[in-house]
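Lab notebook, bench 4. The sequencing result for the construct came back, and we need a structural model before the next group meeting so we can plan mutations. Quick request posted to the team channel:

Model the 3D structure of this chain.
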Amino acid sequence: VKQEVIMNSLALAGVTEVWVASGTKFGKTTAAGTAISSTAPLHRQALFRWIAPIYMQSKIGYNYCKRMLPGEPYVHRHDGEPSLTFPHLETRVQFFHGQKPESLEGEGTAGNVLDEAAKMKEEVYTSAKTTTTVTRGKILGVSTPLGKNWFYRRCMAAREEMIRAKHEKRQPTMLFINAPSTDNPLVTKEILEEARRSLPDRLFRQYMLAEFVDDGSVFTGFRENFYGLHLAFDNIERQYWTA
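Done. Here's the predicted structure in token form:
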């Protein structure tokens, strides 16, 4: 059921954002690739984008989608860029990296996939969001958790929206999906037990159970010794140090 929702996420009426906290090997890239590959052909003169932390990861998404879609003359494949074009629809799917968020701004998009979103700057989401203002395009963010950064906040905002919508008896505008590795029937009990034995507990919970561990760095246990608000610096550019 979770895979089905993710695969249809860019076509869900009334839903603007879908956030998926996934365990490793759940199948998030396959599901996200299906979402963009199945939705793009439904639009005419539209632009879709797949955004990953680095160029090589965007190529992985490109290869997934390329295998899912037919070739010439229905879909033009541009390996150099990389991108896919539906010539009869004048619709494009571009595959970008998020290292320069400002390069994502400008042309309106009908849908965006943020692959491994937790590993990218929050500005990537902000830039992608600006391209959907007029088009009302959708955003699908999928990632293994990485501490409690901006990806965590978007997931919690979506979760709260779902709770409010249920209370108000309406359709939510955002969805949150928790998808641990245990949801994948191909991930056997033996694999999980091996991971449990070989990984520290906090990393097992993060990578396999898709939990948002309080601290994503190598320092653990320090928060229990402090009182008051915890300051979060999820971007080095936002830090200011003074003597």
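The chain has a mean pLDDT of 90.
Will bring this to the meeting.
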